[in-house]
Write a structure and sequence with these properties.
Blueprint lengths: L7 H15 L30 E6 L2 H12 L4 H15 L9 E7 L6 E6 L37 H12 L4 H14 L1 E2 L2 H7 L3 H6 L1 H7 L11 E2 L2 H13 L2 H4 L1 H13 L6 H6 L3 E3 L2 E5 L2 E5 L6 H12 L9 H22 L10 H4 L2 H9 L24 E6 L5 E7 L57 E4 L3 E6 L6 H13 L4 H6 L3 E2 L7 E3 L6 H9 L4 E3 L8 E6 L5 E5 L8 E6 L2 E2 L1
Parallel strand pairs: 14-15
Antiparallel strand pairs: 1-9, 1-18, 2-3, 2-10, 3-6, 4-5, 7-8, 8-11, 9-10, 11-12, 12-16, 13-14, 16-17, 18-19
Helix pairs in contact: 1-16, 2-3, 2-5, 3-4, 3-5, 5-9, 13-14, 13-16, 13-17
Length: 590
């Protein structure tokens, strides 16, 4: 892919970045080591054998059960992915839904084909670079990218469901959606996570008549266990099943959406919806410690940052490093990967993203040479941009009994999206416009900064952190992903490193989490994640460590052991009463 960054100022940033990457650290501080010998990694399309059964891990038991019902009815992993995706949009409206978008990372067992189905939202055709800036001050107008109709990009998830079903599934779309339609009509159980996420969005939801009618009871948050029916959602799914893509993007549903959004001050048009298509992209593939990693390409930043971080760390004799040294090196590698995310990454249909450069082992080696084992590198010293995250989004992982694999991450961005429901549709709209760089160097709601590569443009897809990932090793296959906004990438990195060390699916998702994203220049940790000695050792090296008041993320992992065919499903224990990992070996579902 060509490496082109227009404009003299940008070239100065690029040149400074490369000089930093390629210049060795002072001898007394140099931590980089020579290449570490690794076994050959399996080819991405190599035959993997067959698992003993199927496994699904998702963020909600009702969605896991819908996927298992589809497998039981003869569907494959891709049919089950359609069911789980649609079900999560119903029972986890705070995290995803038909008004949002997502990424489907798939591997087909019959021929080893891997594909990345990009169902990311797109900016409306009337969107402009400075649409959220105050003309008088040039500064962003508060909350316009977060609440209300103007915050919503054009949804992609319905098109993703239709495409995955028609291209990779083996049952009619209506059969894959049948368990979800039943759940919507009979009622789903409002749970602890729904309540927790609604707490800080209740007032905004109450202000929207459609959202208030759908999700609140007399203007208040429903109690845990309340049965919630959503016949409008069922009707939209039926129309999708009957008419495919046009059932959502043309006709009555499209007209209703456009009328509702424009009446509320938005800029959608019928042409916006009619033009929407998913894009099949080649996944990003690289090797790591004798394994083949298949992950998300742009417009996700996750795969590039994952590749950069892991390839930096692959230059160390990891097993020989002390635990606190491994943690320090991981933080420093993430700092550099997130820095590159801020500068270079955006929608590849609009900008030339230097993926080959950023994911090349030689570039990682240059970045590694700038890392000191003794001191943290202040982010302000890395050439680049100048200048709280809440658990949202959702992920699920699937392996079926034939060895088909689906890793899917989907979102409406912030919890409960833009807090708007067009009456008669049954779903919230996203506030994905906040994922664009509204102004260079200005943080979004997750504290992430960006530059021109991720600037708003008509029809453009905003940069994402979603990182659905498949790891193919000689002994086992892992399917990994999580929500968490800017922290998605660091969580997937941590999960893969835990799996490298032999963790089970349940152990990998339970690991206490540590995060660094370049800016702000601080190490975020979950409550109690580090003991006093480890924290003191990091601070002595110059790291600013901030313990957050809450845990974060909702990782879902499936493991397939290639030696004996066993499967594991690990659902994040941070939501004990909500998520569910389920396996089927020998036809016994549990």
């Amino acid at each position: 892919m060509p490496f082109r960054v227009p404009g003299a100022p940008r070239w100065r940033v690029v040149l400074a970045s490369l000089l930093l990457a390629l210049a060795p650290a002072p001898p007394a501080l140099a931590a980089a080591q020579g290449p570490v010998e690794r076994p050959a990694a399996p080819a991405v399309d190599a035959p993997l054998g067959r698992p003993k059964g199927a496994a699904i891990a998702s963020a909600n038991a009702q969605a896991t059960d819908a996927g298992m019902a589809v497998l039981r009815a003869g569907g494959n992993a891709f049919d089950a992915a359609v069911a789980v995706s649609a079900a999560l949009g119903l029972v986890e409206p705070e995290s995803s839904g038909l008004g949002g978008g997502g990424f489907f990372l798939l591997r087909r067992a019959s021929d080893g084909k891997v594909v990345f189905v990009d169902a990311r939202e797109r900016a409306p055709l009337a969107a402009t670079r400075d649409m959220y800036l105050d003309p008088a001050t040039g500064e962003p107008r508060p909350r316009q990218t977060i609440d209300g109709a103007l915050a919503a990009a054009i949804p992609g998830l319905p098109a993703g469901l239709v495409h995955v079903s028609a291209t990779y599934g083996r049952m009619p779309l209506g059969e894959a959606l049948a368990p979800v339609i039943r759940l919507a009509e009979r009622g789903w159980r409002f749970g602890d996570k729904n309540i927790a996420m609604m707490g800080w969005r209740k007032d905004v939801l109450r202000d929207d008549p459609g959202a208030s009618a759908l999700f609140l009871i007399d203007g208040e948050v429903p109690a845990a266990g309340t049965r919630m029916r959503n016949r409008d959602y069922a009707d939209v799914l039926r129309r999708l099943a009957a008419e495919g893509h046009d059932g959502f993007y043309r006709g009555p549903v499209a007209q209703r959406l456009v009328d509702g959004v424009r009446a509320a001050g938005g800029i959608w048009t019928l042409e916006d919806l009619a033009q929407y298509r998913v894009v099949e992209r080649a996944p990003l593939v690289f090797t790591h410690r004798g394994q083949t990693v298949v992950t998300a390409p742009p417009p996700s930043s996750g795969g590039v940052a994952l590749a950069a971080t892991l390839q930096i760390l692959d230059g160390y004799d990891w097993a020989a490093e002390a635990p606190v040294d491994r943690l320090h090196l991981r933080i420093e590698a993430m700092r550099r990967a997130y820095r590159d995310r801020a500068i270079f990454l955006g929608d590849p249909d609009f900008v030339d993203v230097p993926v080959e450069l950023l994911t090349h082992p030689a570039y990682a080696a240059g970045l590694r040479a700038s890392i000191s084992t003794e001191r943290a590198t202040p982010s302000a010293l890395l050439p680049g941009v100048t200048r709280s995250e809440r658990p949202d989004t959702t992920h699920f992982s699937i392996v079926d009994a034939e060895g088909n694999i689906a890793a899917v991450t989907q979102t409406v961005n912030l919890p409960y999206g833009n807090a708007m429901v067009v009456p008669g549709t049954g779903f919230l709209l996203n506030n994905e416009m906040d994922d664009f760089s509204v102004k260079p160097g200005v943080p979004n709601a997750f504290g992430l900064v960006g530059e021109d590569a991720n600037a708003i443009a008509p029809g453009k897809r905003p940069l994402s952190s979603m990182t659905p990932t498949i790891v193919i090793g000689m002994d086992r296959v892992a399917v990994v992903g999580t929500p968490g906004g800017s922290r998605i990438i660091s969580m997937v990195i941590q999960g893969l490193l835990a799996l490298d060390a032999g963790a089970s699916a349940a152990e990998a998702v339970a690991e206490p989490r540590v995060h660094h994203q370049y800016l702000p220049d601080e190490v975020s940790i979950e409550p109690g994640a580090l003991d006093a000695a480890t924290r003191a050792a990091l601070e002595a090296r110059g790291h600013v460590v901030k313990e957050e008041p809450r845990t974060w993320g909702n990782m879902q992992v499936v493991l397939w052991h290639r030696d004996d065919g066993r499967v594991e499903a690990g659902a994040d224990p941070r939501w004990k009463t909500v998520g569910k990992g389920s396996t089927d070996e020998g036809g016994i579902f549990r």
